[in-house]
Design goal:
Low-confidence stretches of chain A: none
Distance between the termini of chain A: 36 Å
Largest sheet of chain A: none
Order of helices and strands of chain B: HH
Mean pLDDT of chain A: 89
Low-confidence stretches of chain B: none
Helix content of chain A: over 70%
Mean pLDDT of chain B: 90
Distance between the termini of chain B: 81 Å
Radius of gyration of chain B: 27 Å
Number of helices of chain A: 9
Structural class of chain A: mainly alpha
Oligomer: heterodimer
Number of strands of chain B: 0
Number of helices of chain B: 2
Largest sheet of chain B: none
Structural class of chain B: mainly alpha
Strand content of chain A: under 5%
């Protein structure tokens, strides 16, 4: 397997492979967002307690889940980068962090817009909300640290270490609703045996989770490619790529 | 369909402000992120294009000096 994987440790090959996956992720993103939004906003029935305000769930939960999934994938990449000194893994850390940060912000903001009508407050210093806010700060810290060094080798290593340190926050977020008495409700759908949600509400939610996952994938691939091009911009293959683009389209 | 009219849909059972605020800001953020990502790619291409052009100019100048 190593023989088969080995060529992809070359930035040029990784760039091309990412480019092959990108249109599929983009298409899946558009498809699932259209279906999920129409279904969630128009066709799923209003909640018997929360009325139509519950429709915020269709962006709140997927954004929060994918913000954590993005962090988990970054942590794996950071571990790989530090142990095996694979620079491409550092680049995926740098590529994922801004996407994760935006998703975390969306989760927090939609949570506030949902909390106001339901709890009567935009924000409470409750365990789930606070730990999610810390996740946002960790993301911002990783981005800032990565951009603080002009030497990208050093930047990648520093950002990877900070990523691994921040992993401690993930279980805290996940179990915050169990460990502490919080205003935030417990898990609704991660109980796979019997989700406490009606099917006609659950399906659009699952589709929206897939939509956010596909968007996370597409944006990470795009940013990963940018990262490779930036670091390799002096290499002949990047020059050739740019020259071909100039000749073909006259634009980028 | 969960709504009888378009006005109903916008009102969201009285929660319209909160629902559309959440959706509006979320999609604004995502669109900004997508454009930022595309813009970064364009910027890299621009920088490399400029570098190639500059090197070509320098080479040309060098050749001219060689002739003189």
């Amino acid at each position: 397997m190593w023989k088969w994987l080995h060529p992809y440790a070359k930035p040029e090959r990784s760039y091309q492979l990412a480019g092959k996956f990108l249109p599929w992720f983009a298409a899946l993103t558009i498809l699932t967002f259209s279906v999920g939004l129409v279904w969630g906003l128009l066709f799923s029935p209003a909640d018997y307690q929360q009325g139509d305000s519950f429709r915020i769930i269709y962006i709140h939960v997927p954004a929060a889940m994918m913000a954590m999934a993005a962090y988990a994938s970054m942590a794996i990449a950071a571990f790989v980068a530090l142990v095996w000194q694979i620079r491409l893994a550092e680049m995926t850390v740098a590529a994922t962090a801004p996407v994760g940060a935006v998703f975390t912000f969306i989760a927090l903001f939609t949570g506030a817009a949902w909390g106001k009508p339901m709890w009567g407050a935009w924000w409470v210093w409750d365990a789930r909300l606070t730990s999610e806010l810390i996740l946002l700060f960790v993301y911002l810290g990783i981005i800032a640290l990565y951009n603080a060094f002009s030497d990208k080798l050093l930047a990648g290593r520093a950002a990877s270490i900070l990523t691994l340190v921040g992993v401690i926050n993930l279980p805290i977020i996940h179990y915050s609703v169990v460990w502490w008495n919080t205003l935030h409700q417990g898990a609704t759908i991660s109980k796979f045996d019997k989700p406490s949600m009606a099917a006609e509400m659950l399906w659009p939610l699952l589709i929206m989770i897939l939509a956010f996952a596909a968007l996370l994938g597409a944006l990470t691939l795009m940013r990963f490619r940018n990262e490779i091009l930036t670091r390799e911009s002096h290499r002949p293959w990047v020059r050739k790529l740019v020259e071909n683009n100039m000749n073909r389209t006259g634009s980028y | 369909m969960a709504f009888n009219s378009f006005a109903d849909f916008i009102a969201m059972g009285g929660y319209g402000f909160y629902v559309w605020l959440a959706y509006g800001i979320s999609f604004l953020c995502l669109i900004v992120l997508i454009f930022n990502t595309l813009e970064k790619r364009k910027k890299i291409f621009r920088v490399v294009t400029q570098r190639i052009a500059r090197e070509q100019r320098i080479n040309k100048a060098k050749n001219r000096e060689g002739i003189l």
